[in-house]
Amino acid sequence: MSEALKHFADTYLMWNEGYLIWISDILIVLASIGIVAALTYFKKWKWLWRNWLTTVDHKKIGIMYLLAALLMFFRGGVDALLLRTQLAQPGEHFLSAEHYDQIFTTHGTIMILFMAMPFLFALFNIVVPLQIGARDVAFPYLNAISFWLFFFGAMIFNLSFVFGGSPDAGWTSYPPLTELGFDSGPGENYYLIGVQISGIGSMATGINFIATILKLRAPGMKLMRMPLFTWSTLASCIVIIFAFPALAIALALLTLDRIIGTDFFTMYHGGDPMMFINLFWVWGHPEVYIVVLPAFGVYSEVVATFTRKRIFGYSSMVASLMLIAVISYFVWAHHFFTMGAGADVNTFFAVASMMVGIPTGVKVFNWLFTMFRGRIRTTLPMLWTLGFIPNFAIGGATGIMLAAAPGDYQYHNSYFLIAHFHQMLIGGVVNGMLAGMYYWWPKMFGFTLNERLGKWAFWIFNIGFYICFMPQYALGFEGMQRRMYTYPTDMGWGSLNFVSTIGAYLMGIGFLFIVWQVLYSLRHMEKDTTGDPWDARTLEWSLPSPAPHYNFAVIPTISDRDVWWEAKEHHHTSDLLPKVDQIEDVHMPKNSARPFLLGLSFFVAGFGVIFNWYVLAFVGLAGIAACLIARALEDEEEYVLPAEEIVATEQSLGRV
Amino acid sequence: MKQGVWRRWSAISIVATGAIVLTSGCGSKYFVLHPAGPVGEKELHVILWSAVLTLLVIVPVLMLLAWIVWRYRDRPNNKAKYTPEWSESRLLEIVWWGIPIVIIGILGVYTGKVTFALTQPPEKDAKPLTVYVTSLDWKWLFQYPGQKIATVNYLNIPTGVPINFELTSDAPMNSFWVPSLGGQEYTMPGMATRLWLEADKPGTYYGHGANFTGSGFADMSFHVKAESPAQFNAWVKSVRASAHPLTTAGYKQLRKPSTVGDLTFSSFPPNLFNNTVWAEGGRYMQNSMPSMSSTVSTLGKNRGLTNHSN
Amino acid sequence: MSITPASASHHGRSHGPLEYRDPHQAVKITGFWIFLATDMLLFGCLFATYLVLRTHTDGGPTAAHLFDVPGFTAETFALLTSSFTGGLATLAMRNGNRKWVMIWMVLTMLLGLTFIGLEVQEFVADVGQGATAHRSAFLSAFYTLVGTHGTHVSIGLIWMLLTLIQIARRGLTAKTARKLFVVNLYWHFLDVVWVFIFTIVYLSGVVM
Prior knowledge:
The complex is a heterotrimer. By secondary structure, chain A is an all-alpha fold. Helices cover about 65% and strands about 0% of the residues of chain A. Chain A folds into 3 domains: about 1-45; about 45-590 and about 635-650, Cytochrome C Oxidase, Chain A, CATH 1.20.210; about 595-635. Chain A has 21 helices and 4 strands. In chain A, the strands form 2 sheets. In chain A, strands 1-2 form a two-stranded antiparallel ribbon. Chain A is globular. Chain C has one domain: Four Helix Bundle (Hemerythrin (Met), subunit A) (Up-down Bundle), CATH 1.20.120. Chain C is built from 8 helices and no strands. Residues about 5-15 of chain C have low confidence and may be disordered.
């Protein structure tokens, strides 16, 4: 009995791997007990189920995405600090090679797929329907499914750390290293299944928001009157629906190789690992634009609001968004200039990659000239935006350098590359998402975040960023490769690595300041009673903070691009307020437990596949089928919200 | 807090200056910036030119940003112009669509030229030396088909002679990189790729696998010793005379995942490299850096198979 | 009013095809078109994989000696005809003729079942000759591409059955009409994909 128990503990709980695992196991158990106890003690189970787990309200789904993104930011950040601690000095033995490999894999996967993606979905959800004057997204039920698929995909992925072992072949997961012959543990399966499940959710989100933006705009909101954040969401979603299928196929085929023994990417029977690499980057490069385009949207909103000026060159901004979306499909091979394609192929992809610099450059100039002759208020969203510009300029420059193919032969897979893409993803995406979070926080929660603590967070994080990543460019020129768990003393890489590690810890402290800021602001709440704390420009600021669950009592008619700003300028904000006699009954989508159960079924099925426990997989698949069939046969998916109730709510908000 | 922008600016410029000093700095540790051969030199030219051309844009942008943020800060007594409705200017937009287009145009043409130029060594009298490179878990096997010797984790090359590397892998894919001599190329199972490098100066150069291959990856370093052709020939002779042969059984042993030190072999099993490439229906990357007359270009024909180029 | 914009529901179209009359249902058709775009790309990636791997037979069976001309011709015939009958069901739906909707749909499903039956038979015969998905990269790609299409068709059959149950229960409403329209859209899409499989996989397989 005890032998069997020990075998189980060593195989699945990795109890023999040392204190990092023990600490995590204990922390997870304690945290779970804590959450269950707190929910029971405060009698919040029903509240959790009714208000959150079964909700189809885009605002609540957005908040859940945000929470998940911040938690994953924390997990990915801890991974990063473990990596940097290991690399702080040559010949370090803090982590073993195996653990280091697992941690850089989970760091990359989590940051891009389980931090950046939910963060931008949070903003899509919270902002887009309010900006275009809609009561919800086009398919609220599907929206909930998207969230729960993301959630359970992320759960599966994170579970690997304490049950069975993490993936350890990098977030790019190149075969044949990831084929059974070289990587037999469940870790790689966790990666394939976890990312696949959340990827299905992402595709659904893409479809949902394209339909929302194309079909649910308030009357009068022509395409060229849409706020730029909505435009960027549209561009990003178009890229999502055209890029994610490639990832789904790459992962599915690799899964088939591992589960049923096909030979797509193996070294045997004519398998072709290059095909995976191509499919992966056909998704992978557009993915970078998927996450950065919404950040561009945030910057456009923030810059216009905090300079009290119309955005400069709106049409150029729209054109450049769309141009980036299109070019993003023609650059994927720059991830493997060194794979032996001909000079013609490499030149094509080199020039195409450089061309991305044209529309992004235009955007930077337009932001600058929006600020020019404006009045710049350095609030938190604006600070993160101002921090972004130099970051992105330097990162963009090194990006063009990387695109020059012969140069790339020397940068490829070196720390120069690492520094470059962190500069784009942190300086571009994280800055943008945080700017967006600060900007729309009052709209989500009805209070603003403390400025002083936020400024500390900003400065520490940004200074930490430069200290962390500038030395890595130099390390690339010194010939240091990525993904080495340690390096010898005589290479002379020690001092720059040590500096870089200091920077990483500063960024960690910066993140803790954000946490402190949120907790502090929860206690010392500065309520936003106006609905428009920033003196902003677009439609969402005409609503109270937070918006009532039906969003608009009466759908407004849009007459201008910056509709709320124009209304304030010309003193007719009352046009955007509801009149009692216009308020009618509204059909709202019903809450449903099924999206949650569907996600859970995917989780069970995925878990079965990961460990080749086919009975479990079958149970999960049956659950999925049951949820889908029940939905298909459902008749009433909406309920009527009576006009009187809306009038009462609007009266209590002082709007009618 | 408004002055914070300046404070941050100074922080950035300190770090940036630091980075520039470091990267342009002396110290031969900056392999990429101190190439020891013509390929690395060409690549360094591209690196420098692309850096200069992008700096032409980002330096003005950063200066403009600093000036604008300072000039138009929101202070009650700020007398600077304020035009909240001004949002279009055809002329300005043409300027900043135009500038990047011109710069990318110049850089694109230059990049294309160098990319094509690097596919072959310039015409020379020196007959190139062919070296077969096989990446294994976690070691490098180098075979000299002309000299009929083999080494592991180090290779000696003559200076002033282009080296024609033919690369494959008998393990997960890796990348062959000697930063002092020039850029890298993937080694892939079931495929052969090509790369040519050359050392002008004698010396010992650092090399390492650049594509992650699992837990032994960090140990996949090797060194390249460039010496005069006479010294090289002497070395070949001594290897032939003194080292042991690499047998098929020995290769099987070598193939198993492990890390080893430097090894030297006086011979290797015939066709070992080709057999590795073709073991499982492999093929030759015809387009990759096509060098002069290649031994392997006839390989496909011998096998009665067509070459693919993807 | 519902979550769809006021303008659309106020001026809800009283004419035009039944499935588009309720704007709330029309949005779902838009959404489905977008979904078809992603599904098309899914197949696109599988086609690309197949095209790259189709010569990687590793000495095993090749396309030319595996594919059975009468077999895949019959499959093509069954599926193309089912698409036609599905189209007739949509027309009957627009005329509000529930009986004929049911008849055409049952016929469509029978043809779909025939297709699946033939495909399963073909796969079983191939595997009997030792041409399993493990044999070579070419066969892995072949079974995955054609099998993914077959899975889509099977799901389509279940979906049609569920739609028919609803039409039987609730009659032809704006909602059931939209559902019928969408499932037929899906069916036509699978037909188009099959045409590509027919030409790229089977025809060029036996010719080249």
